[in-house]
């Protein structure tokens, strides 16, 4: 683990960058400035992360490389694996031992530099390494054994692959002599993982061992990052070899492009200068390439509103008024309207996911596109850009900024930003006085309260997958990149909790909170033992609706309230369960309890679970139906109508609506958390008109239905 | 349309599976594929023919480029490239009709490489259309077995592709 000498950079205090910052945001920023720091400095300042990136690109090892006392010594393959990790500066490994990994674990026993975190399931070990990598910017490392140990990593590897997270996964394999004979605990893990790794190796000789490790770390951490698997037959782990670690790497077939083409940068600048209604989509690539400052500079210079993808959340500080936040299926109405009305998209490290674009043919129909991505395959995959720029997002955006300055560019149309800000006033995510169910806890309230109590610079929030994830995306304010961790591409339930453990291990000084649902949490709940066993004081805020809420919500809105297999009948008592693992825990079910309970949770220096009971009927709004255009929005709050949820496509003049005004669902008083299905006013009918557009919705449902999610 | 891709890859176990796996999981069917080491034994060259529309094809080549094992991809589709294929026909040939088959083989500059009691094995190289024409002719005698290698291709002149 890293030491904690660094202190986090000071909050940006109550000095908003632009005068028209809305009051609630200003209050939020002031509040965060007055709070004491969480004390998160873990060698993860922006400068250090940038230095780490430059080091990775240079091809040099992350650690001492050949300059260790093990260089030139004779040792077993297993000892050489440990020595290689030490040469890469690895201090933390997540894993689970087994028969074909036993030599590796035996060698680990002698290491004074590597701290091993024993998970309770290999999938969780990978998610922990993933959370560690996302929180710190370092490469996450995993040890597992052959066969089931290796196959259990597949979901974790796929999760990291979809979200471009650097991992090196080391799996034990049966001995070379019996590979292919269906030996005990044999699985072709290189073959099984091929579609979900950036690269993989089946080690054939110890002559290749150290070079393989250097290549693996290099490939995982450079270009578009991703997971790399090294499968090591256990006879090699026992064989003697002489250890020499390479200080350089040379892979002629792997040469990522970092600098953007100057001609294309020039074209991009011309497009930006001539556009009247530009929008930036900030994606995960901004975080990976540390482009956050450059993107903010571009946005402020040209007064460009910014929307963020799930992985790009926190790429731009939430306090910046130009940051419109989430876009897409559960994005705000104002962000989605901005996308629909814009005449230029500047996509920075974003890949036009279907959850962002909605119906593609109606996505940003008037917009030209500048697409900046380090992965050429992302460009033109979904939307054809007018200006494609392959390169590192930070380099490219910096080059664009520099040229904009040189030509003295100014915003074409000051009205655009004002209009978007008016939309934001009109359709907020949530307002304090908006109450769906009196005397019941609204998840929006809890998350807003949590958000104001956390240091937005130095705390880390992870999420599981489902409704709570979307609420967190909407309501948790973040100021620094790498402080919001969520499974975006694969949407892996069971990711968030182990990822929080990994993040906390990577940043021990930071307050780390996992926002979970009762479905997701149970997919890796055994990791409570990992947390307690390693003294990881992670917090779990359980948004507990006793159901698989997201699928439940779809069933209500699009499947005629046929709740097939989404209502839990046998949830455990989560408080008792947590206590059985040695955690502290508490349950709340009334809005008055929120404040005190959150304070107790955050003040605790031990692992802590807060079980927050919410109504099952609580729905994530706004929502765009699958297959619909993103300006066709269900359930956005319209303050000009007195704060009611409205369903309409596009917009009508303020104070009028062409769509449907929804009434909250009546609650069934007899069944805790369940809701009545026979009410006269049903949101499902009133709000979506699901019956009126079965063709569009159903076809899209087939193609896009979520897996699980709660 | 049909695209001819010439792909230079690392000559290592598993590389073929990486390339073909990627092509199939992105939804393409491979029409033909040949692979063998090149003048540099650490590298192999694959010649792959796929059927795709232009947008999908571009995405496919970009994805192939991302494989760490792939050095270079050349598109030989539009070019005036040299394309060859080798085929072995085992043709039904009772002794009284052998001369007819030998005559056909000669016209196509093919070789007789084996003779059985009631069959002749003919080896031919050339473009796909030439081999198709031979196949048509041999069908009337009866083809017992046919093996085609799939296309290999190379650009003309000094260019290295």
In short:
Chain A is of the alpha/beta class and 710 residues long. Chain A has 27 helices and 24 strands. The radius of gyration of chain B is 19 Å and the shape is elongated.
Question: Using CB atoms under 8 Å apart, which protein chain pair has the greatest interface?
Answer: A-B, 18 and 20 residues
Relative strand content of chain A: 15-25%
Multimerization status = heterodimer
Distance separating the two termini of chain A: 33 Å
Strand content of chain B: 35-45%
Q: What sort of overall outline of chain A do the alpha carbons produce when their principal axes are compared?
A: globular
Helical stretch count of chain A? 27
Number of strands of chain A: 24
Rounded mean pLDDT of chain B is 92
Shape of chain B: elongated
Give helix % range of chain A: 25-40%
Structural class of chain A: alpha/beta
Cα(first) to Cα(last) distance of chain B is 21 Å
User: Which segments of chain B are poorly predicted (pLDDT under 50) over 5 or more consecutive residues?
Assistant: none
Instruction: Bin the helical content of chain B.
Output: 25-40%
Radius of gyration of chain A: 25 Å
Whole-angstrom Rg of chain B? 19 Å
Low-confidence stretches of chain A: 1-41, 667-704
Largest sheet of chain A, described in full? Answer: 6 strands, parallel
Give the averaged pLDDT of chain A, no decimals: 88
Identify the notable features of this structure and list them briefly:
heterodimer; A: 710 residues; alpha/beta; disordered N terminus; B: 161 residues; alpha+beta; 5-stranded antiparallel sheet; 40% strand; elongated
Describe, in plain words, how this protein is organized in 3D.
The complex is a heterodimer of chains A (710) and B (161). Chain A is built from 27 helices and 24 strands. Residues 1-41 and 667-704 of chain A have low confidence and may be disordered. Chain A is α/β, with parallel strands linked by helices. In chain A, helix 5 crosses helix 20. The longest helix of chain A has 15 residues, at 122-136. In chain A, helix 9 links the parallel strand 6 and strand 7. Chain A has a six-stranded parallel β-sheet, sandwiched between helices. In chain A, strands 11-10-9-12-13-14 form a six-stranded parallel β-sheet, with helices on both faces. Chain A has a six-stranded parallel β-sheet with strand order 16-15-17-18-20-19, sandwiched between helices. Chain B contains four helices and nine strands. The longest helix of chain B has 13 residues, at 54-66. Helix content of chain B is 29%, strand content 40%. The radius of gyration of chain B is 19 Å and the shape is elongated. Chain B has helices at residues 15-25, 54-66, 98-107, 128-139, and strands at 2-10, 30-37, 43-51, 70-75, 82-92, 111-115, 119-126, 143-148, 152-154. In chain B, the strands form two sheets. In chain B, strands 5, 6, 7, 8 and 9 form a five-stranded antiparallel β-sheet that branches. Chain B has 161 residues and is of the alpha+beta class. The model of chain B has no long low-confidence stretch (mean pLDDT 92). The chains are: A alpha/beta (710), B alpha+beta (161). The A-B interface holds A 190-191, 194-195, 198-199, 202, 204, 219, 251-254, 375-377, 380-381 and B 10, 13-14, 17-18, 21-22, 25, 55, 58-59, 62-63, 65-71.
């Amino acid at each position: 683990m890293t030491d904690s000498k660094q202190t986090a950079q000071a909050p940006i205090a109550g000095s908003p960058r632009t005068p028209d910052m809305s009051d609630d945001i200003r209050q939020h920023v002031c509040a965060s400035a007055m709070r004491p720091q969480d004390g998160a400095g873990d060698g993860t300042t922006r400068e250090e992360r940038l230095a780490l990136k430059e080091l990775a690109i240079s091809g040099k090892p992350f650690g001492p490389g050949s300059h260790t006392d093990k260089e030139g010594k004779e040792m077993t393959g297993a000892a050489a694996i440990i020595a290689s990790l030490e040469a890469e500066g690895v201090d933390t490994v997540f894993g689970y031992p087994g028969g074909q990994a036993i030599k590796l674990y035996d060698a680990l026993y002698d290491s004074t530099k590597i701290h091993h975190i024993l998970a309770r399931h290999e999938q969780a070990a990978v998610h922990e390494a993933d959370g560690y990598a996302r929180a710190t910017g370092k490469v996450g490392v995993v040890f597992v054994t052959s066969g089931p140990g290796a196959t259990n990593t597949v979901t974790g590897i796929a999760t990291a692959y979809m979200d471009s997270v650097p991992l090196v996964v080391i799996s034990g394999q049966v001995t070379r002599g019996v590979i292919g004979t269906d030996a005990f605990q044999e699985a072709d893990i290189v073959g099984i993982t091929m579609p979900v790794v950036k690269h993989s190796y089946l080690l054939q000789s110890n002559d290749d061992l150290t070079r393989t490790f250097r290549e693996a770390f290099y490939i995982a951490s450079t270009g578009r990052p991703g997971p790399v698997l090294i499968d090591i037959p256990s006879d090699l782990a026992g064989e003697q070899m002489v250890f020499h670690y390479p200080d350089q790497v040379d892979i002629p077939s792997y040469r990522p492009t970092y600098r953007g083409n100057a001609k294309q940068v020039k074209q991009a600048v011309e497009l930006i200068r001539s556009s009247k209604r530009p929008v930036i989509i900030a994606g995960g690539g901004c975080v990976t390439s540390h482009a956050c400052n450059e993107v903010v500079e571009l946005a402020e210079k040209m007064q460009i509103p910014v929307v963020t993808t799930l992985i790009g959340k926190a790429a731009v500080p939430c306090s910046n008024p130009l940051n419109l936040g989430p876009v897409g299926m559960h994005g705000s109405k104002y962000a989605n309207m901005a996308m629909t009305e814009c005449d230029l998209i500047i996509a920075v490290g974003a890949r036009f996911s279907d959850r962002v674009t909605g119906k593609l043919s109606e996505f940003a129909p008037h917009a030209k596109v500048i697409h900046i991505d380090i992965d050429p395959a992302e460009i033109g995959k979904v939307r054809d850009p007018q200006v494609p720029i392959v390169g590192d997002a930070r380099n490219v955006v910096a080059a664009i900024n520099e040229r904009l300055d040189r030509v003295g560019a100014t915003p074409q149309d000051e009205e655009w930003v004002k209009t978007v800000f008016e939309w934001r006033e009109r359709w907020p995510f949530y307002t304090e006085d908006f109450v769906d169910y009196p005397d019941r806890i609204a998840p929006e309230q809890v998350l807003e309260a949590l958000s104001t109590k956390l240091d937005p610079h130095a705390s880390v929030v992870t999420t599981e997958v489902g409704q709570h994830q979307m609420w967190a995306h909407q309501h948790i304010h973040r100021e620094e990149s790498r402080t919001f961790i969520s499974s975006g591409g694969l949407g892996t339930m069971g990711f968030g909790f182990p990822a929080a453990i990994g993040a906390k291990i990577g940043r021990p000084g930071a307050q780390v909170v996992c926002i979970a649902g009762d479905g997701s949490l149970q997919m890796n709940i055994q990791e409570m033992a990992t947390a307690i066993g390693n003294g990881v004081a992670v917090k779990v805020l359980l948004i507990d609706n006793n159901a698989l809420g997201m699928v439940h919500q779809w069933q209500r809105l699009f499947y005629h309230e046929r709740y097939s297999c989404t209502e839990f009948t046998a949830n455990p008592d989560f408080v008792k369960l947590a206590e059985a693992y040695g955690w502290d825990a508490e349950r709340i079910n009334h809005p008055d309890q929120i404040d005190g309970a959150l304070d107790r949770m955050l003040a605790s220096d031990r692992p802590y679970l807060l079980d927050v009971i919410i109504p099952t009927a609580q729905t994530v709004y706004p929502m765009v139906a699958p297959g619909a255009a993103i300006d066709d929005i269900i359930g956005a709050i319209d303050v000009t109508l007195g704060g009611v949820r409205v369903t309409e496509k596009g917009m009508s003049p303020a104070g009028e609506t062409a769509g449907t005004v929804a009434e909250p669902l009546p609650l069934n008083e007899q069944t805790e958390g369940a809701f009545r299905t026979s009410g006269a006013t049903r949101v499902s009918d009133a709000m979506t008109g699901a019956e009126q557009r079965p063709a569009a919705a159903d076809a899209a449902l087939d193609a896009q239905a979520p897996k699980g999610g709660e | 349309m049909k695209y001819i891709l010439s792909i230079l890859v690392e000559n290592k176990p598993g590389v073929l599976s990486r390339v073909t796996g990627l092509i199939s999981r992105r939804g393409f069917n491979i029409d033909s594929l040949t692979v063998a080491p090149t003048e540099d034994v650490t590298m192999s060259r694959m010649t792959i023919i796929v059927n795709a529309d232009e947008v999908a094809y571009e995405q496919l080549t970009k994805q192939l480029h991302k494989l760490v094992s792939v050095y270079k991809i050349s598109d030989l589709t539009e070019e005036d490239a040299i394309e060859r294929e080798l085929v072995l026909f085992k043709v039904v040939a009772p002794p009284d009709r052998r001369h007819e088959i030998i005559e056909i083989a000669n016209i196509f500059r093919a070789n007789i490489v084996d003779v059985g009691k009631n069959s002749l094995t003919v080896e031919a190289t050339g473009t796909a259309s030439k081999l198709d024409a031979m196949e048509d002719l041999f069908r009337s005698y009866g083809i017992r077995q046919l093996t085609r290698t799939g296309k290999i291709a190379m650009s003309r002149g000094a260019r290295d592709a």
